[in-house]
Specification:
It is an enzyme of class 2 (transferase). Helices cover about 50% and strands about 15% of the residues. It has about 300 residues and is an alpha/beta fold.
């Protein structure tokens, strides 16, 4: 019986890998076809396709359920409209991977605006002269991938923590692209905390996405619903006594983007004067929630944040 179970498990694993491979090839073919088009046309086409196909996927049900729970006051039609805008934004994000060099045209010394505008230039310039570590955090909103590229434009080196896709074939491709365009990366897995700690210990900078599900996280709330939040950022900020800066990307009309870097947050402290882990986790959630409420269609609602 044990041998039969072992054989069944191995067979299932092979089927799973084969399925990953097939999906990866489909994605790679799609990206290759997009490269045949001009950047703006390819991005618009991807968004159009996603608005048609997205609602047919199982993830659409996850998105609309999350939206209904987060916005109990909204009608089903309003929920559906936000979900469609989300598919539009997520498809643009996928296509933008292919055209990062064409999209990111920001020049701090340019007299005319391009596709990218930046708020907080003075903060970027000031941090470059500070000989101490910093932590930047953002969320899955807009094209968040542009943020570390922007930091590099000002000479800031940022090591980003990221969660690789579940598909190992796509994960390798994405990792290769991100290494090329976005500096140093630390995959979110065992040992990641030590890697980030080493970066901060060398007075360098770390970037983190803070809106992901973390089963072993700190109990907190998001849209007044219970969630678990990764305490890593708070723990690192407490250990290295470093400033924490919110950063986000907003999609603008006409295929443009605004990157915003805000001043350092005042982190809550406990009775001993140390960074309060639970309160800081909640502060991060509250900050991201504010961003999402402002532009709900630009956040990744199909992510099982509450599940």
């Amino acid at each position: 019986m044990f041998k039969l179970k072992l054989l069944a498990f191995k067979y299932w694993q092979k089927l799973k890998i084969a399925n990953y491979w097939l999906w990866a090839q489909a994605v790679f073919i799609l990206l290759a076809l997009l490269r045949l088009l001009p950047a703006k046309a390819a991005i618009r086409f991807s968004a159009w396709v996603a608005r048609k196909i997205g609602p047919l996927s199982s993830r659409h049900k996850v998105a609309t359920r999350n939206l209904a729970n987060a916005y109990p006051e909204k009608s089903p039609q309003e929920i559906e409209e936000i979900a469609l805008e989300m598919w539009d934004s997520m498809a643009r994000l996928l296509a933008e991977y292919v055209f990062l060099d064409a999209i990111f045209d920001f020049d701090p010394d340019a007299k005319e605006k391009g596709l990218i505008e930046v708020e907080g230039e003075e903060i970027f310039r000031r941090l470059l002269d500070e000989k101490k570590p910093h932590i930047f955090f953002t969320a899955h909103t807009g094209n968040f991938e542009l943020l570390p590229i922007c930091a590099a434009t000002f000479g800031l080196n940022v090591t980003a923590l990221f969660r690789p896709p579940n598909n190992p074939f796509i994960a390798r491709k994405v990792l290769k692209a991100r290494r090329t365009n976005m500096g140093h990366l630390v995959p979110s897995k065992a040992g990641a905390a030590w890697s980030l700690a080493a970066v901060l210990g060398q007075d360098d900078n770390v970037g983190m996405l803070v809106d992901q599900k973390f089963a072993r996280g700190v109990p907190s709330t998001f849209f007044n619903l219970p969630v678990k939040t990764n305490p890593l950022l708070a723990k690192l900020a407490r250990q290295y006594d470093c400033d924490v800066y919110p950063a986000r990307c907003i999609r603008l009309p006409g295929g443009r983007y605004r990157l915003e870097l805000s001043e350092a947050m005042e982190l809550p402290r406990d009775a001993n004067g140390q960074v309060d882990i639970a309160a800081t986790a909640q502060l991060l959630n509250d900050t991201v929630e504010g961003w999402v409420r402002e532009y709900p269609g630009q956040w990744m609602w199909f992510h099982k944040r509450w599940g």
